[in-house]
C-alpha cells in the first residue's frame, strides 16, 4: 500500500504560558505607581525639611491652594475664560490650517504661491510676536486668541498637506475609471486617507495651544489661569503658581485624550 499523501493538519497555535503576561502587568503597575511614589517622596522630603517650603511647597499645600481657589470661585472663572480662548484659537487656526493644507495638497499652483510664505512665517517664533500683536491688536482678548490660532495652524497645515500628497495614486486612478467627480474623490478617497495624519496634527496643535496660552495669559491679562499665576507671583504664593501649572498640564493631557478617543472612534474601520 502506498503511504497516505494527505497534508498534515495545521498545528494549533500554542497557548501562551500562564505567566507570559505577568511582566506586562508588572510594568503597567510600576508605571501607575511611579507618580504616587514620587509624590510620597516629595511630601516626605518637605516634612523632613529637606525641601524648603519657600522653594517647593509640599503636595498637600498645593492641594490646599487648589481647594481654596475652587471654594472662592476663582478657579472656575479662570478655567472658563482660558477654555474659551483655547477653543476660539483652535477653531480659527484649525480652519485656516486645514483649508490651506488642503488647497496646497490638491494644487501644485497653490503650493508654489502659498507654501513659501507659509514656511517663512512658520520659521518665526510665534511667541516672539507678542509685542507686535499687542501694538496691532491691543491688550484685550484678540491678541491672545490670534496667538493661539497662529500656533495651532501650522501643525494642521503641514499634516494636512503631507497627508493629501501621500494618498495612494492608484485610488485616484480607480476613481477616474469609475467616473468619480471631484467631490466624490474628495469625500471617498482624500478625507478617509488623510484623516489619521490630520488627527495627529490636531494633537500637536492642542499641545501648542496650551503652551501659547500659558505665555499669552501672563502678559496684560486680567483673568484666566495665567492671571492667577501672575497674581500669585506678586503675593509670593508659590503653591498657587505650581497648582496653576498643574492645571495647564491636566488640561493638555485631557484634551489630548479626547482627540485620541475621537481618533479611535473615527478610524475604527482600520482595525
TrEMBL record:
GO biological process, one term: alkanesulfonate transmembrane transport
Keyword Endoplasmic reticulum: no
CDD domains to which the protein is assigned, alphabetical: TM_PBP2
Keyword Transmembrane helix in record: yes
Pfam family, one: BPD_transp_1
A GO CC term attached to the entry: plasma membrane
InterPro entries: MetI-like, MetI-like_sf
Region (Disordered): 1-21
Keyword terms: Cell membrane, Membrane, Transmembrane, Transmembrane helix, Transport
Subcellular localization(s) per the UniProt record: Cell membrane
Domain ABC transmembrane type-1: from-to ranges: 75-259
Topology relative to the membrane: Multi-pass membrane protein
Membrane spanning stretches: 89-109, 121-139, 240-262
Biased composition (Pro residues): 1-16
PANTHER family in the record: ALIPHATIC SULFONATES TRANSPORT PERMEASE PROTEIN SSUC-RELATED, ALKANE SULFONATE ABC TRANSPORTER-RELATED, MEMBRANE SUBUNIT
UniProt protein name: Sulfonate transport system permease protein
Taxonomic source organism: Mycolicibacterium iranicum
Amino acid at each position: 500500500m502506498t503511504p497516505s499523501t494527505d497534508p498534515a493538519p495545521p498545528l494549533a497555535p500554542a497557548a501562551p504560558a500562564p505567566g507570559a503576561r505577568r511582566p506586562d502587568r508588572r510594568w503597567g503597575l510600576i508605571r501607575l505607581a511611579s507618580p504616587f511614589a514620587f509624590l510620597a517622596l516629595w511630601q516626605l522630603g518637605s516634612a523632613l525639611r529637606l525641601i524648603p517650603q519657600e522653594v517647593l511647597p509640599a503636595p498637600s499645600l498645593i492641594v490646599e491652594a487648589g481647594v481654596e481657589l475652587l471654594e472662592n470661585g476663582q478657579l472656575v472663572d479662570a478655567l472658563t475664560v482660558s477654555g474659551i480662548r483655547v477653543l476660539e484659537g483652535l477653531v480659527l487656526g484649525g480652519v485656516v490650517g486645514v483649508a490651506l493644507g488642503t488647497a496646497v495638497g490638491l494644487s501644485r499652483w497653490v503650493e508654489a504661491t502659498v507654501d513659501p510664505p507659509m514656511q517663512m512665517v512658520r520659521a518665526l517664533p510665534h511667541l516672539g510676536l507678542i509685542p507686535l500683536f499687542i501694538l496691532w491688536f491691543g491688550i484685550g482678548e484678540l491678541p491672545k486668541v490670534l496667538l493661539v490660532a497662529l500656533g495651532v495652524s501650522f501643525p494642521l497645515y503641514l499634516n494636512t498637506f503631507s497627508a493629501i500628497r501621500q494618498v495612494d495614486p492608484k485610488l485616484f486612478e480607480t476613481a477616474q475609471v469609475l467616473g468619480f467627480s471631484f467631490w466624490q474623490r474628495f469625500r471617498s478617497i482624500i478625507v478617509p486617507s488623510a484623516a489619521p495624519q490630520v488627527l495627529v496634527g490636531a494633537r500637536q496643535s492642542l499641545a501648542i495651544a496650551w503652551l501659547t496660552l500659558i505665555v499669552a495669559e501672563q502678559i496684560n491679562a486680567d483673568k484666566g489661569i495665567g492671571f492667577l499665576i501672575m497674581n500669585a507671583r506678586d503675593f509670593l504664593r508659590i503653591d498657587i503658581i505650581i497648582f496653576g501649572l498643574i492645571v495647564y498640564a491636566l488640561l493638555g493631557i485631557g484634551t489630548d485624550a479626547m482627540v485620541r478617543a475621537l481618533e479611535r472612534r473615527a478610524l475604527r474601520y482600520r482595525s
